[in-house]
Amino acid sequence: xxxxxxIICRCEDITxxxxxxxxxxxxxxxxxxxxxxxxGMGPCQGRTCSPLIANExxxxxxxxxxxxxxxxxxxxxxxxxxxxxxxxxEHD
Length: 92
Ligand code: FES
Prior knowledge:
Layout: E1 7-9, E2 14-15, H1 16-24, H2 30-37, H3 49-61, H4 82-86
Antiparallel strand pairs: 1-2
Helix pairs in contact: 1-3
Bound molecules: FE2/S2 (inorganic) cluster (FES).
């Protein structure tokens, strides 16, 4: 099976081949790879793909997986007060 057929990030449909291409271009952190190809930005926010990508970085760069910093998690939504929804008050 080719690395182009192996899906690493199922939320954003990113293959192992795409991840390896980014690493070959010099990206060595989850954050850099995330910005390049959107892996980790799907509904699961990288819970599934981040460990797999970190493992691939560690293998290719030759560093322990524990030395790879985790990416920042930014929720796709912001909490608002129920009063803002039902009472028409402005969101603060
Ligand atoms: S599998 Fe990558 S963001 Fe969900």
